Amino acid sequence: MKYEKRLEGDDVVFILHGLIEVRIPKKFYEKCRQRYGEEGTISFCPYKSIYNAITKRRLYYISKESNVPLIGHNAFGIIDRGTNLLQVRPITGCNLNCIFCSVDEGISKTRITDYIVDLDYILEEFEKIVEYKRKYCKSIEAHIDGQGEPFLYPWIEELIKSLSEMADVVSIQTNGSVLTKKMIRRLDGYLDRINLSIHSLNERKAKLLVGKKDYDLQHIVEIAKEISSSNIDLLIAPVWVPGYNDDDIQEIIEFGKRIGAGKKWKAFGIQKFVKYRFGRIPKGVKRMDFRTFFKKLEEMDKSLILSREDFGIVKCKELPKKFRVGEKVKLKLEMHGRIKGEMIAIARERVIQVVDTNKKIGDYVNARITRNKDNIYVAKEI
């Protein structure tokens, strides 16, 4: 086990994989070390607290032994939206702080909890779901995405390589900041497509949009070129933020065409900035409705308007739902949720987000299911 160790105030702090921060009060550390040894203390000391070293939020490590299902939440696990594409979400948390982020990632005012899923556990559950789905569709795509940056996952290369043995297509979304040329070369032959976020080729604008003064745009440009020169397909995915990067979209398109993006699939996935309840809204952002957005894309290039068929996505019977909308249930709260006032319960092999509650872990609540779409469950306390 590789880790860094340091003293911070009254705590002994271990950093694993540059991401998982384990804190143990000094007054308990020596006792645990004598009983478990140094590495054993990290795993077994009952007085430890775990955080995401990047976001500084509380962190849950979800393994098979935790008995937390990987179906039911939109932030971690596996999401089946009734197609042959399965979203694989092994981690939350981001190293950037995009001013338009739909889930308020990075330095966040709303997110208070992060999650990381054990590699063996997520692969085991993915294999079970694929076995079910293949009864109804021939081709399966594993798309690694999430509320954060997937390449922060410590075992991302192992995850990709293992998924390639079970799925017909493996794709991933990324901001590219932690990708290296060596990683791309190691993943060539296992990873089919990278959806790379580039929002501007102007250094000042790029840093403004991602909310980081030390953002290295030239690194992202070089990464894009490296992907294009490999057998991995490149899709460039800018978010169009009206009033900020209107003049940059065409330049990004020209750049992508020049380096050879889109060898097999479409080269661009331009997204319109959309306001979300818990997302960020850039100051002075201009309004653009979807009709105007699609019209502008069509004027640039008709091929910029995407469909499921462009990526071989077809309908495929979804996993059985375990709760009905409107159903009343009694739930035990097991974990903290992503945002304040949200807790997580477990029932019928599903995770349920219980919202608008001030109850604590271990409490029982009477709740009503308000959402079951895509096997993502939300309940409200009654």
Description:
This protein has 382 residues and is α/β, with parallel strands linked by helices. It folds into three domains: 3-53, no CATH class; 60-311, TIM Barrel; 328-381, OB fold (Dihydrolipoamide Acetyltransferase, E2P). The chain contains eight helices and 19 strands. It has helices at residues 26-44, 119-133, 156-163, 181-187, 203-210, 217-228, 249-259, 290-300, and strands at residues 3-8, 11-16, 20-25, 49-52, 58-62, 77-80, 85-89, 113-117, 141-144, 169-174, 193-196, 233-236, 239-240, 271-272, 328-336, 343-347, 350-355, 364-371, 377-381. It has a six-stranded mixed sheet. The chain has a five-stranded mixed β-barrel with strand order 15-16-17-19-18. It has a four-stranded antiparallel sheet with strand order 1-2-3-4. Strand 13, helix 7 (249-259) and strand 14 (271-272) form a beta-alpha-beta unit. The radius of gyration is 22 Å and the shape is globular. The termini are far apart.
Present the secondary structure layout:
Elements: E1 3-8, E2 11-16, E3 20-25, H1 26-44, E4 49-52, E5 58-62, E6 77-80, E7 85-89, E8 113-117, H2 119-133, E9 141-144, H3 156-163, E10 169-174, H4 181-187, E11 193-196, H5 203-210, H6 217-228, E12 233-236, E13 239-240, H7 249-259, E14 271-272, H8 290-300, E15 328-336, E16 343-347, E17 350-355, E18 364-371, E19 377-381
Parallel strand pairs: 5-8, 7-9, 9-10, 10-11, 11-12, 13-14, 17-19
Antiparallel strand pairs: 1-2, 2-3, 3-4, 6-7, 15-16, 15-18, 16-17, 18-19
What best-fitting shape do the alpha-carbon axes yield? globular
Strand order of the largest sheet: 6-7-9-10-11-12
Tally of distinct domains:
3
Q: What composes the largest sheet?
A: 6 strands, mixed
Helix fraction, binned, reads 10-25%
Structural Rg: 22 Å
Task: Determine the number of helices (DSSP H or I, runs of at least 4 residues).
Answer: 8
- Low-pLDDT runs of 5+ residues are none
Helix/strand class: alpha/beta
Strand content: 25-35%
CATH C-level class of the largest domain: Alpha Beta
What would the average pLDDT be, to the nearest integer? 97
- Find the count of extended strands (DSSP E, 2+ residues): 19
